[in-house]
């Protein structure tokens, strides 16, 4: 395995004002776990717990919160109205699925980078996408078998959510390709996790695909550490959430990031305003294709 140089950037968090609530299914009344919740147009987000409860770092009543979960319609409501939020299930018209007789005698790993150095960043709730373009060479290995991610976790059994997106007409991440939430359990330490998606019967799209890992901002994943500012002697609680996704520096002009409830196209100048480098940092993710 390649040697990894790990660099950690952490931020001390002081929660001044919070809003608490619960997310439920509008038909059954059951709580919905792992709902993504964002303050609209701000990099403030959270995730609902297994019992549907959530806490988000804002109390400004006129701000909008955006609630989204696979299988439910997205909902936007005011902070003042978010103590109990109901999401409506989405009714899908399913296409006929044809299961091909796969041989799985060939495998091809795509998305490898020349840069072997992987760095770990805590970028808060923001999600960064890695784009995999299509190549005619994939005709003989056109099925997506696995997604592989490099992570560093301070705790055992940290959880993270996998997303696979089609490319929309503007080149942004579009339709979700998975039919249900895929929650992945990550081991402690620096690990290379292989996530099998064979059961979803996905072909590599001709327009390419985006792979995204969403950090679940839940109590189970929380890591707290007491730190002291030696200049002021003030003690703070430093909060992070495991696992941290590792990143590679690559030559790209831009990166797609999800923040504030929408996808943003960030240029390398926006991502690294004080750097003359031509690189951006993208998640250390690869795909395994098979026949």
SSE blueprint:
Layout lengths: L7 E2 L9 E7 L10 E4 L5 E3 L5 E4 L7 E5 L6 E4 L5 E4 L19 E4 L7 E4 L5 E6 L10 E11 L4 E10 L5 E4 L5 E5 L2 E8 L12 E7 L6 E8 L4 E8 L2 E8 L2 E6 L2 E6 H4 L7 E5 L1 E6 L1
Parallel strand pairs: 1-10, 2-8
Antiparallel strand pairs: 2-5, 3-4, 3-6, 6-7, 9-24, 10-20, 11-17, 11-21, 12-16, 12-20, 12-24, 13-14, 13-15, 13-17, 18-19, 20-23, 21-22
Description of the molecule:
This protein has 291 residues and is an all-beta fold. The protein folds into two domains: 19-87, Carboxypeptidase-like, regulatory domain (Immunoglobulin-like), CATH 2.60.40; 107-290, Jelly Rolls. 1% of the residues lie in helices and 48% in strands. The strands form five sheets. Strands 1, 9, 10, 12, 16, 20, 23 and 24 form an eight-stranded mixed β-sheet that branches. Strands 11, 13, 14, 15, 17, 21 and 22 form a seven-stranded antiparallel β-sheet that branches. It has a four-stranded antiparallel β-sheet with strand order 4-3-6-7, with no helix packed on it. It is globular. The model is unreliable at 6-15 (pLDDT under 50).
């Amino acid at each position: 395995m390649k040697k990894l140089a790990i660099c950690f950037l952490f931020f001390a968090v002081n929660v001044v004002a919070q809003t608490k609530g619960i997310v439920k299914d509008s038909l059954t009344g059951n709580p919905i776990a792992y709902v993504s919740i964002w303050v609209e147009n701000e990099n403030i987000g959270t995730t609902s717990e297994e019992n549907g409860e959530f806490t988000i770092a804002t109390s400004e009543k006129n701000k909008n919160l955006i609630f989204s979960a696979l299988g439910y319609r997205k909902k936007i409501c005011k902070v003042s109205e978010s103590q109990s939020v109901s999401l409506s299930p989405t009714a899908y018209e399913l296409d006929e699925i044809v299961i091909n007789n796969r041989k799985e005698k060939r495998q091809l790993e795509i998305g490898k980078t020349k840069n072997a150095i992987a760095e770990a960043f805590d970028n808060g709730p923001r999600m960064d996408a890695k784009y995999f373009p299509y190549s005619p060479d994939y005709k003989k290995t056109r099925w997506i078998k696995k997604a592989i991610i490099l992570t560093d976790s301070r705790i055992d059994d940290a959880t993270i959510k996998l997303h696979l997106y089609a490319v929309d007409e503007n080149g942004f991440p579009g339709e979700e390709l998975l039919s249900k939430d895929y929650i992945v359990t990550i081991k402690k330490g620096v690990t290379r996790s292989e996530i099998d998606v064979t059961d979803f019967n996905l072909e590599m799209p001709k327009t390419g695909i985006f792979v995204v890992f969403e950090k679940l901002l839940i109590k189970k994943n929380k890591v707290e550490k007491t730190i002291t500012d030696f200049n002021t002697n003030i003690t703070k609680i430093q909060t992070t959430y495991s696992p941290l996704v590792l990143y590679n520096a690559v030559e790209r002009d831009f990166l797609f990031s999800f923040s504030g409830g929408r996808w943003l196209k960030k240029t390398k100048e926006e991502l690294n305003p004080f750097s003359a480098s031509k690189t951006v940092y993208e998640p250390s993710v690869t795909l395994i294709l098979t026949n």
